[in-house]
């Protein structure tokens, strides 16, 4: 029998989706399940987005679109990032993709030859490791434990970039931790990056509008404009606008990188559908009241989750200031039992928690930190409160 390509031995299903599917199965069997597993915003975009989609349907040309994206959408995204303080970009610097994940995959293909090194901090989004492994990159993971608030230090970055990796991948605000780097922290890292001109820098910053406590969103280019010729900014409509199923991602990048990703689009996807592009344009250019309101709501949810977690003896949780995740260190539970069932790891913890209390969380080892678990707190308030109460109760029952 013919064999699969060797790279498929390095490809594996998303750990997040495995947990989500198990929770869905239990719910279908009649269990009362609270799912904190999938990172979706759980709100819908404004009515103007749907109106634009319907109008595009009525006027559908049935033709292929641009590999890069239509000019009106590129211009809308340029205006969007200018509001973030990322200025001086033209259409030649922008391209689109089927969500940020496909954009990141294209970037891996465009920038990494097999055996090239990519460096990124842990905790990391699960797909960083998966994509890097599929393309055959050499991976340098930079551990950022809860003791340093899950944040990369300049000394760590200096040591990593001294190895001359082809790519440094950075995520701010962070999935899975919800941590946000201050301007001073970004400036200190940017000073290190400036010393190593042969490394591409990808900033996967799709939660850039979901920042709390007045911290603000900061990018390396803000503090070191000369880095613009090798910093690649990744964004998406999924989280900000409640549009994960619409699958629209963007990059703002040096022209050579944007052109390379556009070329890959021509081979991978040809173009995004007209209806999707119309909805994306409406989201970027229309009223911004829904994203603003949801950001305020997420800050309140953050407080409820954080307060519940830090009330549990032995649980440590650096205070998240963005996105909609908390990433508590639950290693105090290791070596204990729940109703006679041993818990020796984060995977055990999540499995027993789901079975005993009907709460689905993703083990931290999926994100490179096996002492933790990820809570996605974008669910409705009643489910959020019920799920957190069950987690508190679960800890109280450990022996």
UniProtKB/TrEMBL annotation:
UniProt-listed Gene3D superfamilies? Aspartate Aminotransferase, domain 1, Type I PLP-dependent aspartate aminotransferase-like (Major domain)
Its GO biological process annotations read: amino acid metabolic process
- Name a Pfam family for this protein: Aminotran_1_2
Read off the InterPro entries from this record.
Aminotransferase_I/II_large (IPR004839), AspAT/PAT-like (IPR050596), NHTrfase_class1_PyrdxlP-BS (IPR004838), PyrdxlP-dep_Trfase (IPR015424), PyrdxlP-dep_Trfase_major (IPR015421), PyrdxlP-dep_Trfase_small (IPR015422)
Give the UniProt keywords, A-Z. Answer: Aminotransferase, Pyridoxal phosphate, Transferase
Question: Which PANTHER family does the UniProt record give?
Answer: ASPARTATE AMINOTRANSFERASE (PTHR46383)
Q: What is this protein called?
A: Aminotransferase
Species: Luteibacter rhizovicinus
